[in-house]
Amino acid sequence: MKNNMQKNIFWHEHLISREKREKYNKHRSIVIWFTGLSGAGKSSIANHLEKKLFIHGMHTYLLDGDNIRSGLCSDLSFSKTDRKENIRRIGEVAKIMLDAGIITLVSVISPYQNQRTMIYNMLGGVKNVLEVFVDTPISVCEKRDPKKLYQQARSGNIYDFTGIQEEYEIPSNPDIILNGTDALEINSKKIINILYKNHIISFCEN
C-alpha cells in the first residue's frame, strides 16, 4: 500500500528558488549542526549565536532537540532505531529550512557517526552543513546536569542515556571543535568568523 501511494506522489517545483530567497535575505542558507553530550553547552551556544545573527539581520531558526521531541518526535523512544528516526526527521525539517534560505541551527546530541553522516549526505554535504562538535568532558557535563539526567541515569531511573549506558561516538571530521567550558561569546565568535570566511554572511567579529 505504501509503495502504491508513493507512486502517486509528484514533486512540486517552487516558483521561488533557494537562490532567490538567499538573495532576498542577503545571506546564504546553511545548517549549523551542534553535536555533543547532554550538558555540553550545545543549546546555550546555539541560542547565543542565533541572537547575534538575528541582531545583524540574518534570517535564522533554532531546532532544539528537546523541543522537537516535545512535538514532531514525541512518539519516539530513545532506542537506537528511534534515535535514528529522530535525527532523520530533524534532518528533513532542516532540509526544508535550507531551501527556504534560512540559517538553521540544530542542537541535538546525535551520538552516532553513521547518523551524522546520513544528515551530511541528506543536506548536500560541505556547502550546506557546518558540523560543530561541542567537546565538553563528561565530568563537566555531569557536574552541570541542569536537567538532572546524569543523576537519574546513575541511579538507574533512566536507561540508554548517552555517556552512561550508551556510547557517544566522537565526530570523525567536524568542521569546528568548541570547548564547551569557554565563554559563549568566544564560541559564538568562532562560528561567526567561519561563516564569514565561507561567504555565508557578510560580517565578522574581531
TrEMBL record:
Keywords: ATP-binding, Kinase, Nucleotide-binding, Phosphoprotein, Transferase. Residues 28-178 form the APS kinase domain. Its EC number is 2.7.1.25. GO terms for biological process: hydrogen sulfide biosynthetic process; sulfate assimilation. It is an enzyme of class 2 (transferase). ATP binds at residues 36-43. One of its GO terms (molecular function) is ATP binding. The keyword Phosphoprotein applies. InterPro entries: APS, APS_kinase_dom, P-loop_NTPase. Gene3D superfamilies: P-loop containing nucleotide triphosphate hydrolases (3.40.50.300). It holds the Pfam family APS_kinase. It catalyses: adenosine 5'-phosphosulfate + ATP = 3'-phosphoadenylyl sulfate + ADP + H(+). The active site is at residue 110. Pathway: Sulfur metabolism; hydrogen sulfide biosynthesis; sulfite from sulfate: step 2/3. Belongs to the APS kinase family. Catalyzes the synthesis of activated sulfate. This is Adenylyl-sulfate kinase. It comes from Buchnera aphidicola subsp. Uroleucon sonchi.
